[in-house]
Amino acid sequence: MSERSCRAGYAERRALFEKHFDAESRRLVYVGAAADADFWDERWSDGEPVRYGKTVPRRSLVVRETTRLLEPGSLIVEGGCGLAVDSWHLHQLGYRAVALDYAQRTLARVVRSAPEVRPLAGDVGRLPFATGAVDGYWSLGVIEHFYDGYSAIRDEMRRVIRPGGYLFLTFPVMSRLRRSKSRLGLYPAWAPSAGQRERFYQFALVADRVQRDFTSCGFELERARPFLGVSGLCEELGAGGRWLNRRLGGRSRPVRWARAGLDALTRPFSNHVQLLVLHRSAD
Fold this sequence. Notes:
Blueprint lengths: L2 H13 L2 E5 L4 E5 L5 H9 L15 H9 L5 E5 L5 H8 L3 E6 L2 H10 L6 E2 L12 E7 L10 H10 E12 L3 H8 L10 H5 L1 E5 L2 H9 L3 E9 L1 H8 L2 H9 L5 H18 L2 E8 L3
Parallel strand pairs: 3-4, 3-6, 4-5, 6-7
Antiparallel strand pairs: 1-2, 2-8, 7-10, 9-10
């Protein structure tokens, strides 16, 4: 199984999770499997070994946003790095990348294959960095996995990023499509029980609320952008969406063009992910 197939399989498993609407917080709650260290070790263990090559995908979100704002030589932390492919690309461009995760078997793979990204075992709520030591911090789909909230993670980000440094934050979002479905009562209501809490996977968060949470404690918004319109659409279409996602998962140029075109059309309405780029204000 290829890495691409592995990612597709994971996306389809995630789409089968139960989704509930938390009316009090206006967010979706995904229930299916706890997003703990064992989950991530299993998630990243499938497929062929990742090849950490010298080619850097210049259209990559991480590459584009980092090179736009920070110079090579900057210290960039990827908190919750998984297989640290994005950290590897930044290393190839001359950044001082540090890849941090708590999934031990996954991190061991990175240590063996890409020690140049300084793989580091750690907790995103208690970062092993000095205050103001970091120029940039990437958090790619992390804060949504904490049922009791992300305030400790946010505060640690603020502590370690230097004044004027940047936080690049992505998370699943309550898109216009998901908000419409929630108003129509198309999600079951969230009524947490002990068993459901144990199977909690992630939230789809309210973008404006996340933005306020960060700008109220020392960050200023640089830009906000929606991403993954097709992914969000396919997830919300159920079985039809899984069929469409498979049809648009090919590597041929026409298929990639078709997916890119549809993504541009659907992104404002059905984006699965929101990107916030924030810079750390001075104390």
